[in-house]
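Lab notebook, bench 4. The sequencing result for the construct came back, and we need a structural model before the next group meeting so we can plan mutations. Quick request posted to the team channel:

Model the 3D structure of this chain.
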Amino acid sequence: MLLASAACRSINAADHGVRPLAMKLLGVTIVLVLLVGLGFFFLRSRSIASNDAKAADWPPEVLAKINRGRAARESVRKQNPQFFADVSDAMFLRDPIGINFKTNTDEYDSEAGTVIPRLEKCSSSDDVVIVLHEEFGRWFGADTAGDRSRYVELAKDIWALWKQERPNSAPASGGP
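Done. Here's the predicted structure in token form:
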């Protein structure tokens, strides 16, 4: 509000009408943007602290399972960082469950880390559709994962990346 009042005071007192109203609206807008930004920062920091507190309440075997999963996914990333990034990027671009907010480009890293090891057993993009649907169902639940048809184009993208990465691993009748 201080910024808004300073802006309004700088206008000539004889100037009545639209300019003072526009300046007040500008000041109010600036204050609102600052409040929203601070609120987001506050909520985000509380959420992180809350997650840490909740993690401390989990049984040790659950934490161990979570840590093993993270380590396995990180191992997949380290084996071929570029391929991992390409698969994650393809997921982000196709965004099968609608979590692409343009700035969270690593949002699908966890899923890429569980899909990539399963590609060895795929012989076509149709197999990749099944893997994607199963993994997204595991990560997000059946309702959020939706129908298999949601993964067809993404599966084609990932299969093309896989064939490029491992040209001799795809059988001759490897499908699309």
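The chain has eight helices and no strands.
Will bring this to the meeting.
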